[in-house]
Amino acid sequence: MSDDGTAPLADGERGLRTTVPRVIQSGGHARGKLRASDTDRDRVVELLNVAYSEGRLSKDEYDGRLENAFSARTYADLDEIVADLPVARATMVAPVAPVAPVVPVAPVARVNGLAIASLACGLAQFAFGPLATIPAIVLGHMARRQIKRSGEQGAGLALAGLILGWAAVILGILILVLGVAMSVRTGGTMQ
User: Fold this and answer.
1) Residue 40 neighbours by CB under 8 Å, 6+ apart
2) Residues 6 or more apart in contact with residue 101 via CB below 8 angstroms
3) Can you give the residue range of the structural domain that contains 51?
4) Greater confidence, 95 or 117?
5) CA 43 – CA 94 distance, rounded (Å)
6) Domain edge (last residue) among 38, 59, 91
7) Cβ(147)–Cβ(118) under 8 Å?
8) Does residue 92 surpass a pLDDT of 60?
9) Which helix (H) or strand (E) holds 7?
10) What CA–CA distance (Å, rounded) separates 69 from 48?
């Protein structure tokens, strides 16, 4: 074992040797040697904020400890910063639990582009008038057909585009019929 805590390890090829880090023993003393993460530093900063707001630290003391917290490298450094604070021991940071193995998840189905376009055209009618009505209807029908065939997401978007498009057509027909009816009615009384 060398002075830096590494043990020589034969590489399998003649004359080549590498070193691997010594396994850290579990326990309180070894925990202090572990590197702290940004999340651990943030927790200590929160503790310092609470202690300062409760009047447990003066402004100068708070500033100094805050600076030390941001520059801390290990758990021991962080423990030292909050060792004399009463809340610190109960809520002191601990090493993060091992992460569970990643389980493959089925890919999320993508949203059909025609469905998005249908909704966009349906909404565009409010800005550009009936110019976008026909594309909203056509794209909505095409999107629903593709979604049934491919299993993509976006059926609701396509349906919303269709509803907006057909609502505009029906509203246009009603306005046209009412306009013709009013002109026939007013035209007959002018004679």
Assistant:
1) 75, 78, 93
2) none
3) 26-91
4) 117
5) 10
6) 91
7) no
8) no
9) strand 6-10
10) 9
Domains in the chain: how many in total?
A: 2
> Which of left, alpha, beta for 154 (phi over 0: left; psi -120 to 50: alpha)?
left
What pLDDT was estimated at residue 140? 94
Per-residue tokens: 66:
């805050």
In the block, which residue shows the tokens 């009603």?
Answer: 174
Largest separation between any pair of C-alpha atoms in the chain: 117
Can you list the alpha helix ranges (DSSP code H) found in the chain? 28-31, 38-53, 59-71, 75-82, 86-91, 113-128, 133-150, 155-189
Residue 70 lies inside a defined structural domain of this protein: yes
Arithmetic mean of pLDDT, 155-167: 92
> Are 82 and 143 in a shared domain?
no
CB 161 within 8 A of CB 136: yes
Please calculate the CA angle 26-81-24 and round it to the nearest 5 degrees.
Answer: 15
